[in-house]
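Hi team,

Filling in the usual template for the complex we talked about on Friday. All components are listed, including any nucleic acid strands or ligand strings, so the model treats them as one assembly.

SUBMITTER: L.P.
PURPOSE: interface mapping
COMPONENTS: two
RESIDUES: 572
SEQUENCES:
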Amino acid sequence: MSLDTLIECEGLTKHYGSAVALDTVSLTLPAGEPIALIGPNGAGKTTLLSLLCGFIRPSAGQVRVLGQQPGSQALSGRLSALPQDALLDPRLSVGGQLRFFARLQGMSAQQAKMDTHRVLQTVDLLDSINTKPVDLSHGMRKRIAIAQALLGEPKLVLLDEPTAGIDPPNAKMIRDLIRAQSTRTTFIVSSHNLDELERLCGSVVHLEKGRLISVGGVNDDAENHEFVTLRINTVEESTFMMAAKALAGVQNITRTAQGDYLIQTDDDMKTSLALMQMLSDYGWRYRQLSRGKTLEERLYGDAS
Amino acid sequence: MNRIRILAQDEILRLVSTRRGIIALAGFLLVWIAVLNYLILPAAAFFVGASDAGIAEVLLARLGLEAWQQWPAPELAVYWVVCLYLLPFFAFISSADQTASDRSRGTLRYLVLRCSRLEIFAGRFLGQCIILVLVVLVTLATVLVAVIFNTPDALPESITHAPVIIVNLWLLVMPYIALMALVSVLAKSARQATLYAVIIWISVSFLVGYLQARFGPLSFLDWVLPGSQVSQLMRLSDWQTLALAPIPIVHTIVLLFVGAFLMYRRDL
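RESULT (copied from the run log):
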């Protein structure tokens, strides 16, 4: 295992009774940019994260996190996580619980106090240090849970649906936080929000029905060079389609959502420039123009 | 070992810094005041009177409790017996939620990221043992205050007997705390843990009764349940009480071993 390898799974399998939650998954993930863990409900995302954290044991196969067995004491303070649906003790103050976690990671009482202040400051909740979790909103509790994951200097942080059920301002704050922290920590983020993951992560692990479908960069799909995605809400669909289909190299145009168009072309670079010229000529204001398909289109485009 | 100590400290902190813990302590204090006022002090006064009248020896001999007379103060003798029966119940109730609600809430996952399951299990058990020892110290102190008022001459000797009582009562409650640590691993709440403990207790009692009836008297079966040494302990005093120490120690080791195994194996 190289020094930069964070996770190694070999034939990793987990059964719950007769149900297979994870089916012979083998993958190696390096340190670096945030990694997206995607897949529909029941794909095995939470099971995989739980195995990596040592919350559950594999039915078969091997897994190593930072070169250690999950649950190993050598991972204390190096591996951190936001487990799905896990709650802090509602009876004790936020600050008291974070200090306790920090002490368990090996910090002195003074260090634990300082680090608790630091992580609460990071999630902008220092004012809530003496508050009990039960008195906080859902979004604030989620941020506190992320704060506990940032205690110490973890090398790897696993976040299971960090923005699920969160209002847009809190979700944005969490995304900004991950982006800011990802220079020194590798995040693995499980989410259903593909748009969010596409903007946040450098690579994607795709699971479905417990099986590993693919592992790769967010933008390294060869097929991506044949597509351009345009977001424009200021023009009627039929008017835009007629004008765009007349451009050289455009083979096909599909409306994927309200104001979103997926344009198939011979050359994405030339078509992008031609589109820009066309938009300028007609005076149509667009919101976004990007080469390639969106992550959602790449993964589930054929399903719709 | 340091993490076990921190976990044990947290267990004590949870008791004194939460509303539920404070209510439990206040409730226990009120019960204890009632026990002291209406049971220990009147019973001690009765035996002092009976002793003066020369009937205490006869009465205690008939009950097989001659060892009571070796306690330096009657308050201490009555306290000893009351605790032998009362403390296990308190241990049952106070230590029921060692890991149960933390597991169902998911809080245990935060801990497992930082320490091993066995450390959590051991730390919580140790914390509960310390809480019970503190309870013994506080209640014993109230009894020694009563000794100061009633039989001040007996105070120095009573104080020298205090370690006997503390060690014995600690040994007594350890298997109960270990049993609750075990069922707490299986349960989702303190109430469910208590229910499991009662079911296990009754089931084992029935099984022992059945085996005794089926295969005749088997002396080792008399010692299967925690607290089975209590009736013998009542007949002993001073450090001779430690003659029965192997029984609760073996109970504790077996229960902790099973509990730790389950803790190690269970999904969180």
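MY TAKE: Chain B has a mean pLDDT of 87. Chain B is about 75% helix and 0% strand.

Thanks, L.
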